[in-house]
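TEACHING EXERCISE
Course module: macromolecular assemblies
Task: Read the component lines below, then compare them to the predicted structure of the full complex.
Student: A.B.
Group: 4
Components provided:
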Amino acid sequence: MTVRINPSILSADFVNMQTAVEAIATADAVHVDVMDNHFVPNLTFGPEMVRRVQAVSPVPLDVHLMITDVDRWAPGYAELGAFSVTFHAEATDDPVGLARLLRSIGSRAGLAVKPGTPIEPYLELLPEFDQLLVMTVEPGFGGQSFMTEVLPKVSAVRSVADTAGLDIWVQVDGGVAIDTIAQAAEAGADTFVAGSSVFGAADPGLAIAGLRAAAAT
Ligand code: DX5
Ligand code: ZN
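Instructor-supplied answer key:
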């Protein structure tokens, strides 16, 4: 199985973002958490910051939008060159229309679900997406504990994708660390977002290698 490790710069030093992304050059992508203080009770940054991170990052950008007005804002992240743009199922009435627009701009389209959101209504939409993000914490903050109870959703997505022969990446985000990543991998995740366990480590590169190894066992 391919294992992808996407460190989240939510846990990096916001005044030293260039140094932060340079420290994770061995990652598969940099996970960029955009929050608007409406969809989640926290506020991070917007397109101009993401454009600058994109300009200096050695790895592609995996943008995770935790915002309400995705129809207005999501296309701009695809236009600035983000490798993938993931929006929340809870934030739009037309996930398929937005996914098609993102793909037409040239970005991978991702759909995210909060821990309390059932996955069943979205399983039939999987062919419209390149990746599915199952939140393993309540979105909004780094450093929370991994919620094992959402892993059946990961397994459900993996099973539908495999049965249908879909090449969709299954991502988990929140509380991913050396002691939790194997369960997520076993449930069927192949793409792992890790904030505090990478940027909180003395050596982010070593932390990435450790997560990669733990996911593969
Ligand atoms: C939470 C964000 C995550 C967060 C993960 O709302 O979507 O990407 O940075 O942080 P950790 O890995 O510390 O749980
Ligand atoms: Zn995230």
